[in-house]
Structure formats: C-alpha cells, structure tokens
Design brief:
The protein is α/β, with parallel strands linked by helices. The protein contains ten helices and 13 strands. The strands form three sheets. Strands 1, 4, 6, 7, 8, 10, 11 and 12 form an eight-stranded mixed sheet that branches. Strands 5-13-9 form a three-stranded antiparallel sheet. Strands 2-3 form a two-stranded parallel ribbon. α3 links the parallel β6 and β7. The longest helix has 26 residues. The radius of gyration is 22 Å and the shape is globular. The two termini are about 45 Å apart.
Length: about 300
Amino acid sequence: VSQENVAIVVASGDIMFGDQSPGTIGADSTAALLRRARNNDSVGAVVLRVDSPGGSAFAAEVIAEEVRALRAAGKPVVASMSSVAASGGYMISMYADKVLASSATITGSIGAFAMFPTYQRTFEAIGIASDGVGTTPLSGQLRPDREMSDDSKRLLQLLIDDTYDDFITAVAASRGMEKADVDAIGQGRVWTGTEALDHGLIDGLGNLDFAVEVAAELAGLSSDFGTLVIEPELSASEQFVVDLLSIATRSGVDVSHWLRTPDLISRLGRTLDEKFALFLRFNDPKGMYTHCLCELN
C-alpha cells in the first residue's frame, strides 16, 4: 500500500436501510466503508463510485452524512457515476467536491414517493371484515387491513411534498443553484450525463480512472499515489467458501457441475422475484423513497 492513496468505495444497487450485503447499498454498511476511508491515514481522497437508482430516503441521508464528514476531515470526495446514479443515487453523489458521469449515465430523477400497502380487498374476498369506533378523524388509519381515508392520503402527500422540498433545497445548496431552477429540472425527470452537465447537476464527464486523477489533484497527492479499494470484509464462513472454490478451481475441478440447472418453474419464479424484489425489500423506517423507476419494465 502506498503512503498516499485515493480510496475507492463502490456503492452499487438499491439503497436500503441498515446493513446490506454486496449488490445492495446499506445505510450502515456503506457508511462504515466511508468511515474506514476517513480514519485511514494513508487515504488522502476518496472516489465514491455510484451505480444506483436510489431507494430509502433516510438511508441515502445517512450515507450523505459520511460524505460530508469526509470533506470536513479535509479529504476531498469525487463522485463517479456509472450507468445509473438517479434519485437517491444522485443524493449521495451531490455532496461530493466534484461530481462526474459518463455521457450515457442515467441521472437526475430528483423526486420522492411513499408506499403504504393495504390488503382490505383481499380480506373481503375471503370474508374477513375490519370494524371499530374511533374518537378522532385519524383513529384506525394507516392500518394495512383498512383502506386509507382521504385525510390519510392528504397527510401522506404532505410528507411526500416535504421530502421533495428538502431534496431540491439540498440540491440547490450543494450545486450552487436556485431552488426554482432545481424544481424546473426535478419533478422526477431523468437526464443523460450530457444533459445533466448542461443543467448543472454534474461538474464534468469522465470515467473512473479520470475521477481518481481528479481526486488526487484535489488532495494535492504526489504523482506516485496509489489506489486503495475499500470493500466489505468477508465473514469466516464466507472466506471458507471462497477459499474452497479457489482450491477446487486450481485443482482443475469444474465447479459449474456443482450447480443444478433450474427447471422452467424455477426460472419463472426467479424472473418474478427479480421484478418484484425491489418493492419487497423497501424498508425505509418512514416509508419515504427517492428511487428512480427508470429500470422497471
């Protein structure tokens, strides 16, 4: 490891609350990686490689706080957008010293929504009813076994509007823009990297290598600086499996024979699971999301 390094932290997948495994961005797990970079004396700057359509609004804010902490510690942060850095993915990027994307990156999608699933019609279909007496207009509301009242829907909409207002206010402050101008290009609309540059949402176009060079320049590192990928550490059982597969491969064993080819039903189930997994995994404690729906089809 070099004496001076640019750390690379990858944030790829949907943004979820708590600790998450690789392939998903966890508020706690990704924040921990950024903290490791902040506490590592050999790290002079950080590149946050983002490939995410967003997710939990609260989780994105937890990660954004660690980006701000890195900058406060004197370690420049460069956000390097991959194929998608939209909504919550843009939120965790916008606080960086520099925000870079490729010309084809899907970004923007500055917006918010909430979900509160109810299943009263399913209950009705099987003969189950819900009833009671309340003393206030909101008594018995926000229960999944009851339809939301108009008052409840208006309350939820107020929370969505407030979250959206916080989002565009933060974008305006971080990008040096007027709030009205951010709202004009917000409203959930998505942009390519080239369009985002024209709108002032990013600072330039470039790949990951370019982002590393920019980060080193911002930190004033010497020309022989190194790069340090900060990634989750494997548990003992995970490391055992990795080592076992590695030994088997080096011994000439074709590990693909260990896998059973899924039948038609299994493949169909997997396809449906992939389509609906996003909604099933939503776990924001407030039920508020900044997620681009551009990848759903």
